[in-house]
Amino acid sequence: MKRILTALALGVAIAAAMAPAMADSETKPKAAAAKVPDGSPVFLENKCNQCHTIDSRKIKKLSEDGPDMKAPDLSGVGVVHKAEWLSAFMQKQEKLGGKLHLKKFKGTDAELKQLVNWLVTLDDPEAAKKLKGAAAKDAK
């Protein structure tokens, strides 16, 4: 009985010692995302929401009377694309489905970096599936 209690106490001690590390590993991605400056002001100032929405952040299109296009919701763009690619795409140096981005980003390099670093934190899985589906459809 003494051995069982000793083993049980040891197991509890190990679990207690590991709990902070396990909790830390679960919060690191969220903490890293929290350290990224909010790019939504840059997104809005440059009127990216004239075409795009970010439903996960409650950012809607400026108006339904805007350009007649099917620009995607960017809520999952961080799952689909890396920062380097997004930066090049917004500068019309990269194509998606054989097409360049409609408008070249006109902000500063610092604003572009802030925007792109924020966009890659947008990781809504359902929106990412739609983006991947649209990209696959465009590639055909």
Notes on the structure:
The chain has 140 residues and is mostly helical. The chain folds into 2 domains: 1-35; 36-139, Cytochrome Bc1 Complex, Chain D, domain 2 (Orthogonal Bundle). The protein is 56% helix and 3% strand. The protein has helices at residues 2-35, 40-45, 77-80, 83-90, 109-119, 125-139; strands spanning 95-96, 99-100. The chain has a two-stranded antiparallel sheet. Strand 1 and strand 2 form a beta hairpin. The protein is globular, with a radius of gyration of 22 Å. The N and C termini lie far apart (69 Å).
Descriptive tags:
single chain, 140 residues, mainly alpha, Cytochrome Bc1 Complex, Chain D, domain 2, two-stranded antiparallel ribbon, 2 strands, globular
